[in-house]
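Troubleshooting: if your tokenizer reports a length mismatch, compare against these two reference records.
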Amino acid sequence: QVQLVESGGGLVQPGGSLRLSCAASGIDFSLYVLDWYRRAPGNERELVAQIDNDGSLNYADSVKGRFTISRDNAKNTVYLQMNSLKPEDTAFYYCHALKITTGTDYWGQGTQVTVSS
């Protein structure tokens, strides 16, 4: 059974930092493109950051320079370091794994990030 489990969310003041983690079981992370998405109330789900199998990175314009995605295939874990957080970063954050060769994908259950003073 495949599971993606996020952790690290919480309440932080504007300007603060959080580090999200997503640990997978049941799949070999090294074969997957890994993403972080988020959904704020009333908004569509949006892609925040992506890291390919070869380490190529992609970020939403709204988080460039503030967020960093990384992966540790040995630990089957993907991370999202979030710095200089803003109230508009408040959302439910999900990790996603996509195997390009088959189209198979998996989602985590999500973790809430709230940026507020």
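Reference record two:
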Amino acid sequence: QVQLIESGGGSVQAGGSLNLSCEVAERIFHPISIMGWYRQPPGKEREFIANIISAGSTNYAASVKGRFTISLLINKRTTTLQMNSLKPEDTAVYYCNVLYNGDYYWGQGTLVTVSS
């Protein structure tokens, strides 16, 4: 079992920025294949936001491309999501997701609220 610790959520006005972080809590014995972020807006399904492959390539949803940047820290156990030019429609619970040793794991979620 892999525990993920998320941080960085909060409230911000439209146009503002937030930085989310997700760290693997314990020692791991295999490389993490993919680290990524999903979000679930109020009353909607969970949706893909961005991910980063261990080799460094990234993927983004069209709705956030150019505004959000996903990074993998040098320790290879922490990913960050820099969110700029936030919009009210970015309001959601944001979840970290990792693919490790063939299994997917989810963080507990962190709430991001963007007011107009």
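Descriptive notes for reference record two:
- The mean pLDDT is 94.
- The radius of gyration is 14 Å.
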